Every structure is written in C-alpha cells, then in structure tokens.
Amino acid sequence: MREPGPPGVQNYYPPYELGQPITGIGVGVIIRSESPKYRTGDHVYGNLAYQAYSIHKGVPSLRVLPNVETLPWSVYTGMAGMAGQTAYIGWKLYSKAEKVVGDTVFVSTAAGPVGSAVVQLAKSQGLKVVASTGSDEKVEFVKSIGADIAFNYKTQSTAAILEGLGTGIDIYWDNVGGETLEIAINLLNAHGRIISCGSISQYNAGDTEKYGVKNLIYVMTKRLSMTGFLVFEHPDLIDEFYKEFPQKVASGEIKYTEQRYEGLELAGQAILDVQRGHNKAKAVIVVSNE
Amino acid sequence: MREPGPPGVQNYYPPYELGQPITGIGVGVIIRSESPKYRTGDHVYGNLAYQAYSIHKGVPSLRVLPNVETLPWSVYTGMAGMAGQTAYIGWKLYSKAEKVVGDTVFVSTAAGPVGSAVVQLAKSQGLKVVASTGSDEKVEFVKSIGADIAFNYKTQSTAAILEGLGTGIDIYWDNVGGETLEIAINLLNAHGRIISCGSISQYNAGDTEKYGVKNLIYVMTKRLSMTGFLVFEHPDLIDEFYKEFPQKVASGEIKYTEQRYEGLELAGQAILDVQRGHNKAKAVIVVSNE
C-alpha cells in the first residue's frame, strides 16, 4: 500500500516505519498546543497516526478546519478532503472543460470518492458523463449522482459502450490505466484530454503482467494531452477548494457516500477491504467520536 | 504516406486524389493573380501541387513570404517552414523550458529538420541536450549544432545512455514512439514533459507489431505530461515564428542542412528516400530555379 516511488522520484508520503503506528489522512482534535497555529479544541486535518492520541513535535503541517458548514468530520477525510481535492484540482487544471461545455467525459472507478466527485463536477458544468464501476449496486449510485451512462465494466464491454456513444469522448478521467486507458485513447476525439489520476489495474501487476498500451501514436495524431498531477503540489487550489467545495457538500449539491469502520480495531479490515476493492464507498475509520 | 486518420479524426491533409498531382508544402511564385492578396512576383508558401505551374481557384491559403532575410527559398520549405514551425511551436507551448532552465532534454531523430531545430532551440535556452539519431555521420552533425551528447541509437543503447546521465531527463521530444518512448518515460524526472511530435517506429507497424508501452503509470506517479499538437492549429504562433525565426536562420544562429533533388523527375526518389529513412537531411525537391 505504500509502494516505493519510481526510480529517482520520492514517493508521495514517507514510507511507514516498522514498529510505529501507520499513518493516513485524518481529522483530529487539538487537546493541548504549544503552537500559536493551533488552539485547544481546533479540529485539524492532515497526516495522522492510527491512534487515539498522538504528539506532534515542532509545528506540524496540519490544517485547521473551521467547518462552518457543520459537516460530519468524517466527510473531511473524503469528499471534503483529499478525494474531493483531487477531483477539484485535477478537473480544474486539466479538463479544459470551461472552454468546451457539451463535451463527453468518461470516468473510471466512478463510484469511488474521487470518481464520484468528478462525475458531479463534470455534470454541474453540463458535460455528458459516462461512468464505469465494478458492481451493479455502484452503477445505481453513480446514476443517482448524475451520470448519464453508467455501466458495470465486469459485465459490459467498455469498448462497446464507448463506441456505442457514436460521438467519441473528449475527456478521460483515468483511475485504472491498462487496457481501459488504451480503449479510451482509441475513442478520444481530437484535442481529447486524459487526466491520469490512478492506475489501479497496474499497481500490483508483475513486470510480465503489465499492460502494454499500443496506441499512443494517437496522442500525436489526435493532439491529445495526458497529464498526471499530485494534489499536494497545488496549495493555492487547495485553499480555493476549501472556500468552495465543502459548502457544496453541505448543501447536497455534491453528494457522497461513506463506509464507516467504527473503532481502531477495524483499521486492518478497512485497509484490506480497500486494497481488495471490497469496500463499497469511501472507507472511514472512526477512531473515536467526540 | 498519407494514411487515413484515426477513427473519427480528420487527417491533417486531404488525401491524395488518384490521377491528380500529389501535393506537399512548397514555395512558389505568383505568375498571375486575380486576388488582391497576391501580386505577380510574390513568393508564396503552402500546399502546392508537384508541378511546374498550377492554377488555384478561389482565394487559396498561401502565405506571402517577404523574405527580407534573403534566405534561399528552399529553406522556407524546411527550417524556415513547417519543420522549424513545428519545433518552435511545440517547444514554446509544451517544453515549459522558460521556467526551468538547467533541464535536460532528450530529442529523438535529432538530425532531422524538426529534431535539429529542437536541439538548437533547447541549447539556446541553456538546456543540456541529449540527442539520438541513426548514423555516425548524423551524430557528428547533431554535435556540430550543439547537442551535448549525441549517439547512434542503432549501435548504442538508448536506455544505457539515458541511465548514464545520472540526472534523468526533464523533457522528451518524441519523434519515434514505441520502445524509445517507454525508455524515456522510465528516465523522466518528476514533472517531466513529453512532446509527442512523431511516432515513426509505429507508422508502418502492423497491429501485431505495435509496441505496447507498459509504464504509463509513471505519468501519474511522476506527474508527467504528454502532449500532441498540430502546427497548423496555432496561427498566432506561426505569425510569431515568421517574425523571429527566419532571421535566426539567416544569421546562422539556427543551422540547417538540405538534401536537394534537382528536377521534378526526382520527386519519386525523394519521397522513397524519406519513407525509407535514406535521406540525410531535409529533402527538398527543386522543381525549378528562378
């Protein structure tokens, strides 16, 4: 789950340390502070240890969440947190959708926290949204949040669905890589954009199992762009996100789902479910309620 | 040579018509004009038929070349024409080199008209230039125009050369696609840029021969961008090109080579040489001298 980065590239997060609690994006409450940045009772967001209490030395880079929207705090770990930020920032920077309303976007793993945010952002801008996900139950969820076409890629052919549109696609939000990426490249229109957000089909593929994408010539002939990004590298947009996005979640304009694991003792199960794709929504481990 | 475009995408040029002269980018002289855009004696640049004289009905989209630089007209078909434009526009729009002087760029087919322009543009901005080409003679030419490292990819390993840099690469100007693209992706640093200008290794590959690029996950993890573009889609930059670039060619700041085929009867040979990669420089067919 915390793979080493590619050669010469530092990983997004520091690796876990043996014998130490693992860490993840979480929301916590300041109990005592010696920093002027944090006051007792402040709710903070950032990389926190999986434990009931922890001590942060120096001035940690935790963000104080005013939560004027009075959202459940758990939402700040998902739709109003990194997942929402990823969708917001990737879409804002690379969809170029402002200029071409009327486009069609294809979103893979559309029922996940990032995918479902992208579906809703795209829909709110008037795009036609085609969404793939891995179960019929998730198909229903993705339709309920506005996807025009949603399908179970395990029982339906992605290529047939995209070809069946008759119009091609203009944007592919890629969470999976591999063959699905190749199919999307085949069906992208001129000036199509690929937003490379994830590559879950390739994470655990051995060297001989990795999928070879054979149609990259279309990047040139169709004048496509393909871009990867990292949410933390855009601090200005993260500030903007917090101004705009949580209130849309609070108002119901942006919908979300959560799968809550109540108690730290379920953390292992939660991680296993996510790694195996058995979770049904954004997995949240509730260490303690206030 | 004029393949059908990918599904749903119009090709760059109209296909050749059987029984009609083939066409290509050329420079001609206006002999008689009924359009106020063109005067007798004007030299014009654009898509011209392979013939000594031709009649253009309506108002053709030919550009009048003032040639205040008094370059040989043939240069306007190459370094001061589409090849130079392609390098100038692709580099300007997608290298992001203004912001990160000190970067390393890798250019494939660096002895060709586009590649050699890119080598010189990159060098003039202070980048380190690594260049691959297909013969020892071309290696010498590429070094003579400023490449820091030039190698014959047929006798040396591209992967070994790029790994040997020790620094990775920041920009890959891709003229070839396939395995070379995969190698470049492996060696690109975080935030690396791929400018997809050509894919010559894949043009004539059958479906079973096409190379599958297996490491596109790095687009995400290394936050790469890969972009294709078409020179004709940026008219403003083409105007800018004509203001800036031909004078650099005239002054010798940008160097070029040409392989001239004197006489229309050599057109077939010229095309064959280019398609087979037997040309040694920009191929120019001289239909007639003034």
TrEMBL record, chains A, B:
Keywords: Oxidoreductase
Top-rank taxon, per record: Eukaryota
Domain Enoyl reductase (ER), chain residue ranges per copy: 8-285
GO molecular function: oxidoreductase activity, acting on the CH-CH group of donors, NAD or NADP as acceptor
UniProt keyword annotation of Oxidoreductase present: yes
Pfam families, alphabetized: ADH_N_2, ADH_zinc_N
This protein's name: Enoyl reductase (ER) domain-containing protein
Key word Cell membrane present: no
Alphabetical list of InterPro entries matching this protein: ADH-like_C, ADH_N_2, ER, GroES-like_sf, MDR_fam, NAD(P)-bd_dom_sf
